[in-house]
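Section 5.1 Outputs to date
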Amino acid sequence: MIRSRSHDARRAGLDRRAFLRQVGVGAFAGAGILAARPARAKKKGGSLTVGMPNDWNTFDPHNLSFANFTLQQNLYDTLIRYDQSLKPLPGL
């Protein structure tokens, strides 16, 4: 009599659930090994490109427009800032 392979596998104690469990454990362990590798060294240099809706008109902090508002917020420190409840806080 010829036995089927599935019958032999069941006799050996490896059913589908056990096989999938072992594959899952192996995949999880493999992912842990890949995550444990050292970080790459930081790359020095390069450039940062920023897209703006308009050109900046002026560097004058008193001449505020939408186009240069972001520039002014990054270049000039304000004397006060506001928290979540709009309470003024010292900015320096």
